[in-house]
Each structure stands twice: as C-alpha cells, then as structure tokens.
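From the shared-data thread, chain only:
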Amino acid sequence: MSDEIDAIRERYSTAQTFKFGDSRSLCMHLLSLVRSGRKTATCSALRDIQIGEPMPAIGRRDIALDWDGAPALVIETTELIQCRFSEVTEPMALAEGENESLDEWRTGHRRYLERNGGFSPDMQILWERFILIENLS
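Structure, as tokens:
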C-alpha cells in the first residue's frame, strides 16, 4: 500500500494524508459523499490539528485514505475558516453534505467531538472547503 501512496505523492508532492471520520462506516460514508459531489467541506477540532492531524493549507492537494489506509481520493483546499463551534453557519454546515439543517449538523458533530476528546460550544474548529481533484478508486 505504501508503494501506491508513494506513486500518488509523486504527482502531489506536497500532499498530506488523512482519513475522514472515526470509524470504518463513517469514513466510507463521507468518502461516498465527496465522490457524489454532495460533500465539499469538512471541519476538525483545532486541538486535534495542534496535536498531530495535518494542518490544511489553501491550494494544497491532499490524499484522503480509506479506513484501511488505501488512497481513496485527492482534494484541494480552497477556503479555511477558524471559528467557534457555535459560530458555524448553516451554509457552512450544509456544505459538509451530511445533514439537512444546521441543527442536525450541530447534533451529529457534537456527538463526534464528544467521542474524540470533548466538546464545548466555544471550542475552536477549523472549517475547510475543498474541491475533488481525483477519485483514486
């Protein structure tokens, strides 16, 4: 698998790798939303980025991995917004493609954040808009 990632990194030399979600089922679901064009944004708790997740960068192309670590797709970051969880707007939430309303987004993301280190409405998040560059599957 590392040979496959190395070959893709030759085309995208500055790319970081990452996984969407915190479980196999969520990862696969989110990858399918990106492939369908419904998911054009994502967000992370700023604390997670500060302790090891790759920091997104506007204009950089990154490789999203499937749950087993195989390259799944390449995205390019087009916009970054750092804000409090409570400041996420409905257009930001809907761009993530997972929910039909801001309230649904808040409920789902609160659960995710609680599972992954804790939640506070004032916690800082990094919201990222991206475009799909290449579907690798």
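The longest helix spans residues 102-115.
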